Amino acid sequence: MGIALDISRLQGRAVLAPMAGITDSAFRVICRRYGAALVYSEMLSTEALSRHHGKTLRMAGFREEERPVALQLFGKRPQAFAEAVALLESLTPDCYDLNFGCPAPKIVKNGGGSALLKEPELIRQIAEAVVQASPRPVLAKIRSGWEVGAENAVEIARILEDSGIAAIAVHGRTKSQMFAGSADWAVIGRVKQAVRIPVIGNGDVKSGADAKRMTEETGCDLVMVGRAALGNPFLFAEINDCLNTEGRRQKAEFVVGWKEKLVVIIQHIEMAVADKGQPRGIREMRKHLGWYIKGIPGAAALRQELMRAETREEVMGLLEKLQNSIHRHQGDMDEQAPE
User: Fold this and answer.
1) I want to staple 102 with a disulfide (CB 3.0 to 4.6 A). Which of 92, 112, 113, 190 is the partner?
2) Is 115 left (phi over 0), alpha (psi -120 to 50) or beta?
3) Active-site residue 102, yes or no?
4) Helix, strand or coil for residue 267?
5) Which domain holds residue 40?
6) Among residues 226, 254, 282, which one ends one of the domains?
7) Is residue 1, in this structure, part of any structural domain at all?
């Protein structure tokens, strides 16, 4: 059997979902600082790792501050998964995660991600191969099924548990739904009832209130946050507080001011540039900058300039312009306030 995952040792109840091109080391650090209990790497190709592909190996790197961190693997050959784990062991991650849920066409067409939901026996072989190769807990991420009417998450979850998987994340959408519509949390509850290992609920958690409702409706042990954390890593603190205080606090108390957000943006920029240099680090930060400044007065006028920035100095100059715009807006608001 595999190594168990002791969720009681995690500091928090919300984990950061793996997102391709987004959850690099810098973003994971930011989310950990604001209470993410566990962070996942970007998806790592087992085929690329089995060939010692340099870029993929670099993607697997992480800072000590990120711990606990899971390295997420995708592919379709059990032997390649086992070889990837043997290679990554030198990094001593806290756990591994097997991706059986990604709906991206380029992953699915090669038989990986959610395509494996149609091959339960292959999922078993992959899980068993990794559990046997790993001296650490092995997690897995699945969707409710391939398409509506063919949901098999409970069947897959039981196979994974029998194979020694330590915890399962369940996204309440099928592959065919991609990210459209509303997540079906009921399937998360059915999986929780069917297995004894921890279950992580995933899909449409956008606030502390959502997280509380998901845990109450499904019984899941942890919640997974993906797109809602973009530009808002503070969401993890909100969720942890809401779950730990029985929801007594209100969301309004978690509105983050521009000064705190600016500090986080600068920290994020510094790590991105340290990791990837200029201009690559800045180019990859552009999407994050767009998310961070969304809804801030004066941000729309500067967005296009930020999306063209190539250096740290350019970004910092634009952020200073934004700060001045915010101050002017605040001054106008103060003048309009009734005495």
Assistant:
1) 113
2) alpha
3) yes
4) helix
5) 7-254
6) 254
7) no
